[in-house]
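Hi all, long-time lurker, first post. I run a small reading group and we've been trying to get comfortable going from sequence to structure in the token notation. Rather than ask abstract questions, I figured I'd post a concrete chain and ask someone more experienced to write out its structure so we can walk through it together at our next meeting. Sequence below, copied exactly:
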Amino acid sequence: EIEYIIEGKRYAILALGGLAIGIRNHESLISNGVIPAFVNALENNDTETIFNSTFALNKLASNLNNSTQIGSGGAIPVLIYLAGSADVNLATQSISALRKLSSEHVNRIQIVSGGGLAQFVKVVLQDVELDAKREIAACFCNLSRSNENKEFFLNDPMLKTTISLCNSTDVEVSRFALGTLSNVAENQSFHKEILKNGDTVGLVVALVKNRNLAVHREACRA
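-- Answer (accepted) --
Happy to help. Here is the structure in token form:
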């Protein structure tokens, strides 16, 4: 009987996730309490249910109007934990959801205070797939937009990780990492800490010469 309950919940979450793909369904889903249901399912022991819930939250997070409710609904701490999953697909879905949620200031604060940066550093050091690196670099860029978060990018592991991402051969990773560095450097009192890393100036100067306009622009801003 328990097995049937687990399977039933798995497919219910899968069906709701399918509905969450369509933005027109979001208002109805949320008004009927789907966010608490998804968050609760993230703490399930069934791996398929966890993935289906993460996928569904990622789809809801695609709509900026839902960001505050998802963030205040308790999803962020669990998504940070799942970002370190050995399951590449689950980790990427979690990171993607956090990146979308980081468009909202209040969520940016919660992600950083909840240990999101340290988790992302661990993920990058594991040499994850490109999609995950792109999501992390974009999330860094969003997180560094909030003044309250900028100083957290100055600790040695974070700064080295950001600079290593700037040096990526992938345009998306490089430009978002450079955007992160630029955001942090907007505070002049942080310049000394940034420049302690001997590679910073030479790398940025080299990237100014990059043929890709987006990379060139962010390097110039840095």
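A couple of things your group might point at:
The CA atoms of residues 10 and 93 lie 17 Å apart.
The chain has a mean pLDDT of 90.
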